[in-house]
Specification:
The chain has three domains: 210 residues, no CATH class; 56 residues, no CATH class; 171 residues, 3-Layer(aba) Sandwich (Rossmann fold). The protein is built from 22 helices and nine strands. Strands 3, 4, 5, 6, 7, 8 and 9 form a seven-stranded mixed beta sheet that branches. The chain is elongated and about 80 Å long. By secondary structure, the protein is of the alpha/beta class.
Length: 461
């Protein structure tokens, strides 16, 4: 930071607050009293009182109010207190109602909000300096700036965050997205801004994380945001949105954004979310809406690995049916999709070492590979999954007819734990298909799918 910047900021602050007292706002409560209330509320461990106390401080646009909210709120050990502080800071910084696309409490005076934002920028510079992993203060301040500033403004925090492309600020982006999921309408405003980042467009796991943050909020503002995103999303994340809207509405409009807008326009007045609204919805959209399905599981992903069991127990009609289903799914893939096939028995084998575009030549080649598969050997399920995870995929479709009997790991519970840990930050969908499974295999495949954002299908011979 240039040495002259603090002096310039002091001058700007004096201009912005000319004639306005810094210790208290005549139109709001006394700062000292508001500070005492906030201190008492934090000690009381009552969420409603904490929120109310921080809201009172947010009516006083001074550096002291900001610093108090940060000290008592963002530096607190519990997430509910930090969430209340983040919401108060966003309002104090002048959160834009246009950003949230829904009615919100009016922001403070524009000049006062501009002063607060300058103060927040300075605080954020200090909090981020020399730190690879941002703490809760940096995350909270950054979230407030994203909620309050115009992303198109060249001096905005968003512009600074986005200018470095995919790599710059990734830990901070993740921290903001995770925190925002607990922040109600303010969180929706923050998450909407995050969808404009290059990082959102380039990184599947972040894209899915942001969208699922919106899904967890269960608010009218989040529904609007999700419907708007349907116009631009593709792949598994688009399926997440469609599945969630289907779950809360009881309707099935697939990925048709216009149909969902019409539904929301008709139902939004007095709409009540289900008492147990889904958190991570499994794909529930009808296969016909997807244009493609594999064993009745909708195929939405843009990058796919199909995994097929070729162990000796698959021999006969079971194998021939599985091959026909896979060839059919391959032939109906969108040309924009990239895919490969992994077959396994004693070991895993791959059709292509990289994902390839689903053009006509690739489809014919993959179909020929699948058609030539022969059932023989044991069942190295872990090796096949490990191979599939080496691809940059959005979804894996794993088909098997028996529990693991070979390979580097054969204990089903250990495999589930290993795969879930490997997928924790990748967030891909692992869909599983059990061909005439016994109880052990069915349980293994069900848990494997539900632990990894996927759907399970039981298939009888």
């Amino acid at each position: 930071m240039p040495a002259s910047r603090p002096v310039i900021l002091a001058i700007l602050a004096a201009v912005a607050f000319s004639g306005a007292p810094r210790a208290a706002d005549p139109a709001g409560p006394d700062f000292a009293a508001a500070k005492r209330d906030a201190q008492a509320a934090v000690k009381s461990n009552q969420p409603a009182k904490r929120q109310e106390a921080f809201e009172r401080l947010a009516e006083i646009p001074t550096a002291e109010s900001v610093d108090t909210i940060i000290r008592l709120g963002l530096r607190a050990k519990d997430e509910p207190t930090r969430s209340a502080a983040r919401r108060a800071l966003a309002v104090l910084a002048g959160m834009s109602m246009a950003t949230a696309k829904e009615p919100l409490p009016p922001s403070i005076d524009p000049e006062a909000a501009a002063y607060v934002r300058r103060h927040l920028h300075d605080l954020l510079d200090r909090e981020l300096k020399g730190k690879a992993i941002p703490g809760p203060v940096a995350i909270g301040v950054a979230a407030a700036l994203l909620a309050a500033e115009d992303p198109a403004a060249p001096e905005s925090f968003f512009a600074s965050l986005d200018s470095g492309g995919v790599a710059k600020g990734a830990p901070l982006c993740w921290g903001i997205a995770t925190a925002a999921a607990a922040d109600g309408d303010v969180g929706v405003a923050v998450l909407r801004v995050l969808t404009k980042l290059q990082f959102f467009a380039a990184e599947f796991s972040f894209r899915r994380g942001v969208v699922r943050g919106l899904i967890t909020i269960h608010a009218p503002t989040s529904v609007v945001a999700l419907v708007d995103l349907l116009d631009t999303l593709r792949g598994e994340v688009r399926a997440d949105v469609a599945g969630y809207l289907t779950a809360i509405s009881g309707k099935n409009h697939g990925v048709d954004a216009d149909a969902w807008r019409a539904w929301w326009d008709a139902e939004r007045e007095g709409f009540e979310f289900p008492s147990r609204a889904p958190f991570y919805p499994a794909p529930t959209v009808a296969p016909g809406d997807a244009g493609n399905a594999y064993y009745e599981i909708p195929v939405y992903a843009d990058r796919i690995v199909f995994v097929i069991d070729t162990s000796s127990s698959m021999e006969g009609e079971r194998m021939e049916t599985a091959k026909r289903e896979l060839v059919s799914a391959i032939h109906t893939l969108d040309p924009l999709v990239a895919f490969t096939v992994v077959s396994f028995s004693d070991a895993a084998r791959v059709w292509q070492p990289q994902l390839v575009a689903a053009d006509d030549d690739a489809k014919r080649s993959a179909a020929a590979y699948v058609s030539g598969l022969v059932a023989a050997g044991k069942t190295a399920s872990f090796d096949a999954l490990d191979t599939a995870f080496r691809y940059d995929a959005e979804a894996i479709f794993f088909l098997s007819d028996g529990e693991p009997t070979a390979g580097r790991m054969v204990n089903p519970a250990q495999i589930v734990r290993f795969v879930a840990e490997a997928n924790k930050n990748r967030r891909l969908s692992l869909h599983t298909i059990g061909i005439m499974p016994d109880n052990g295999l069915a349980q293994f495949l069900q848990v494997l799918a539900t632990s990894n954002n996927g759907a399970y299908r039981h298939v009888a011979d």
